[in-house]
Write a structure and sequence with these properties.
- It is a single chain.
- The chain is an alpha/beta fold.
- The chain is built from 25 helices and ten strands.
- The longest helix has 24 residues.
- The protein is globular and about 80 Å long.
- The structure holds 2-acetamido-2-deoxy-beta-D-glucopyranose (5 copies).
- The site of one 2-acetamido-2-deoxy-beta-D-glucopyranose has 5 residues, from loops.
Amino acid sequence: MRRRGPDFRRPVRRRFSNVFWLTLFGLLILLLIIMLSRDSHEPTSRSPLNKRPFRHDRSVEGLNITEEMLSADSVARQLNDQISLAKAFVVIAKESNNLQFAWELSAQIRNSQVLLSNAALRRTPLTVGESEASIRDMALLLYQAQQLLHYDSSTMIMRLKGKIQGLEEQMNSINEKSSKFGQIAAEEVPKSLYCLGVRLTTEWFKNSNLQKKLNSESNTAAKLVDNNLYHFCVFSDNVLATSVVVNSTALNSKNPDMVVFHLVTDEVNYAAMKAWFSMNSFRGVIVDVQKFEDFSWLNASYVPVLKQLQDSETQSYYFSGSGGDNRTPIKFRNPKYLSMLNHLRFYIPEVFPALKKLVFLDDDVVVQKDLSPLFAIDLNGNVNGAVETCMETFHRYHKYLNYSHPLIRTHFDPDACGWAFGMNIFDLVQWRKRNVTGIYHYWQEKNVDRTLWKLGTLPPGLLTFYGLTEALDPSWHVLGLGYTNVDAQLIEKGAVLHYNGNSKPWLKIGMEKYKPLWEKYVDYGHPLLQQCNFH
Ligand SMILES: *[C@@H]1O[C@H](CO)[C@@H](O)[C@H](O)[C@H]1NC(C)=O
Ligand SMILES: *[C@@H]1O[C@H](CO)[C@@H](O)[C@H](O)[C@H]1NC(C)=O
Ligand SMILES: *[C@@H]1O[C@H](CO)[C@@H](O)[C@H](O)[C@H]1NC(C)=O
Ligand SMILES: *[C@@H]1O[C@H](CO)[C@@H](O)[C@H](O)[C@H]1NC(C)=O
Ligand SMILES: *[C@@H]1O[C@H](CO)[C@@H](O)[C@H](O)[C@H]1NC(C)=O
């Protein structure tokens, strides 16, 4: 909250010192010239000139980029200025080892560049309306940049001068790698989270009372398979995040004694997970912990993802780009861990053979309402109840899949609505009947050369559950708290808030304004959290 008080939209620029600004302005002009000289090689800039680029003038036949850039009130120019400044900050952020911020800036730079190039392609000037959001988001980032990267302006200018020639080359390589950087930064386990895992594991093996306590209730085993109860699953290696999911579900549940949580984690986090959920209670909610290494059916002869990972070409695909530096977390280097907890969502009936209905929650959500009505929703014979994401055209099928591929073209409507993973109600009876796991295997095997889609679980999810998905009311699952601004009313009404995106609430790069909604469910007074310096 500190960084983003109500005044954060005040003009960014006023805060820079005059000297700094003058120098920077010089540098910007320099950059501009570099850019202009590049732009002038493009055919679009050769078209006849237009005197007033800023009118919404439909008689515009072409655009004189030079003139557009020199015009005082040009939006394109404003965008370009911001881009140049942002590029400088990318360099500084990288030098201060703040890769995640560098990534955020690069992502925003790309957004602005897309706007500019679209305008260039269609040969009409950018309008204020279409670029306003980009300009504002970038202004916000630039404002954060000066707060985050504690530079002394004179040294920064020296460094900038030194760097300015290499800037363009660096940007190219950053653009290529930026998605990877973002992923690495987001995947990197913060020290305190790592500490918590270690302490909990120690506690588990030291304290036999704890081991006895977990599920000591006599009828727990029966409840785990009782289809009259509300079953939830979370697949995660993050104890704290999982705790927030369980705690927030329990606190907002009308009947917590009817809630059963099935957690699946990996070998490394198994003891810690068990320790945490036996030393804390959550209003009588039953919590069961498993590790996926115990699932004997999860083997390379059954699971295409595992089979494909044995292939060396696939391995190098997953490994490459990790840069060989030791900052890359182990998880990222091990493709099995990279993907298995993620891919487990396609094997829910196998993981829970006795269950008929279950709500799947990602570990980066927080629950704000009683979720039991979900179990009463009629899915109309569908397998997956999910919130659709088609309000924006870019969340339709064509965004995620390769429509040059004949298999995709002939099977899927490119304009079909995408939907979100993270809060799904699954009808496991229908799942088994419709052989959904088989459908998933079919597509996963067709994608052995990764021509249908690249990475992630959403694209195969879209293929697997195509025509088997029932749209839920959007208030069940509010998305975007990890990367964008979300309407306050949607947040207020939302049953499940999802911090999808890289700015997870447990990371430093988490969005400050959305952290309290999540932190509310963290017990910062807990001795182990205190020992590990949370907050
Ligand atoms: C673009 O405008 C500038 C300044 O008005 C002018 O000098 C230049 O010749 C124009 N370029 C083209 C390609 O028309
Ligand atoms: C692999 O999984 C299949 C299908 O679940 C199972 O039948 C088989 O026994 C498993 N193989 C091993 C080696 O565990
Ligand atoms: C399910 O699909 C798989 C792969 O498409 C197929 O091999 C299997 O026979 C199917 N099972 C049933 C019960 O239809
Ligand atoms: C998309 O599919 C086509 C046809 O199979 C293939 O040639 C192309 O390389 C694919 N594109 C990507 C980005 O994989
Ligand atoms: C769960 O959330 C409540 C409410 O904010 C909090 O007081 C409590 O300490 C949390 N419990 C755990 C185990 O995190």
